[in-house]
Write a structure and sequence with these properties.
67% helix; mainly alpha
Length: 380
């Protein structure tokens, strides 16, 4: 089974319409992850039963997502790189955001929902094991892996031993890159040629196959997103006609890359490295809705991505338990089942974001950033 993807989880400023294109891209990536993992419904223990990729609902329309939706994780990483450079690079470099503040902001955003879904999956995994004497999809559900999960470090060893709420793997890797990002920004390494050097170094390590540790690709795509942010700023300083010409060239390049990939002449991973920056640059300029209601809807869709990413596997595990671990009892080939799965996941994600994530985040930040024993910290 291929490594499952993740998620993205860094909301842009909801009130900043200039960034709504990124929210829309994040939502599209979340859809791709959920469709890629749709095959989990066919799993009994660790093996698929009665599964055919071409028999999945609306396969003709959704084929790229069913067959390569896991690549959405790389786009998520690139989106994170863009947002982090937009929001943190210069404040961190100037010393306006301390290491403590940066860590608290990230911890409060990621950990509450992670720990809640981890505990829920642990309980339901035990329930499934009592029924079937084996685990569902992810097989390393023991105490050592639980300890790694508690530390948000499940994939730091790089062994691909997926456990409990498996999709959290990509978040655990991204946490490592956060540390690299903060350190390099504090050292002043934020210029375009320095960012390009990091991308080239990570690309060289990946191409040489010296290691299969996922941090290599995470660094590559995270800093590809950072470079895209710098390109976005540079593009904004150009005249309107030159901007339009460059964007038109980007569209042609994207169309050509899509065609070449469809013909099998370009590897999907390389296509993703082309798609992510071009899609960001184009959507940032095309998605500027005048309607406040449309803007609010797009922002809401973007805010669901982290919750949908962490909730979809627990929901699948719940269905497996309730169905007695018998996928043949489920109408999995029905478009209505697929649409219901998507609607339930994102509907629940909206509720969880508003009623759980935001309040938990606010409480943690209030407690950890205003503790009397700590010196006052600048806002960032």
């Amino acid at each position: 089974m291929q490594r499952p993807p993740l998620q993205p989880h860094h909301p842009t400023a909801a009130g900043d319409k200039s960034l709504l294109g990124l929210e829309l891209l994040r939502f599209a990536c979340a859809i791709s992850v959920l469709l890629w993992h749709y095959n989990h419904f066919y799993v009994v223990g660790a093996a698929h039963q009665g599964f055919s990729v071409t028999a999945q609902p609306l396969y003709g329309l959704l084929k790229p997502f069913y067959e390569a939706g896991w690549l959405g994780v790389q786009v998520f990483w690139a989106l994170s790189g863009f947002i982090f450079f937009w929001k943190y690079a210069q404040p961190v470099q100037r010393g306006e955001v301390s290491a403590w503040r940066f860590a608290v902001l990230r911890f409060s955003r990621l950990y509450p929902l992670h720990i809640a879904t981890l505990l829920a999956v642990a309980a339901m995994a035990w329930w499934y094991r009592q029924q079937h004497a084996m685990d569902y999809v992810y097989q390393f559900n023991d105490w050592p892996h639980f300890a790694l999960q508690l530390l948000l470090a499940s994939d730091w060893p790089g062994r691909s031993e997926w456990s409990f709420n498996g999709p959290i793997w990509s978040v655990s890797i991204e946490v490592l890159v956060y540390g690299l990002f903060f350190t390099l920004c504090r050292l002043g390494l934020t210029r375009w040629w320095q960012v390009l050097g990091l991308i080239a170094a990570a690309g060289a390590v990946y191409a040489s196959k010296r290691t299969e540790h996922p941090i290599v690709l995470c660094v590559f795509f995270f800093y590809l997103g950072a470079l895209t942010h710098l390109a976005h700023e540079a593009l904004g300083r150009l005249g309107p006609r030159l901007q339009q010409a460059l964007l038109a060239a980007g569209v042609l390049l994207l169309v050509a890359g899509t065609a070449v990939t469809a013909l099998g002449a370009l590897r999907p991973m390389f296509y993703t490295a082309l798609l992510a920056p071009l899609a960001m640059l184009l959507l940032l300029r095309w998605v500027r809705p005048a309607s406040p209601s449309v803007s609010g809807l797009i922002a809401t869709l973007g805010n669901t991505t982290y919750a949908s990413y962490l909730l979809h596997f627990p929901l699948q595990l719940l269905v497996a338990n309730l169905s007695g671990g018998q996928p043949e009892r489920l109408p999995l080939a029905s478009p209505a089942w697929l649409l219901g799965y998507l609607a339930l996941t994102f509907g629940l994600a909206v509720w969880v974001y508003r009623r759980f994530e935001v309040p938990a985040q606010a409480r943690l930040r209030a407690q950890l950033l205003t503790a009397p024993a700590r010196p006052s910290l600048p806002r960032g």
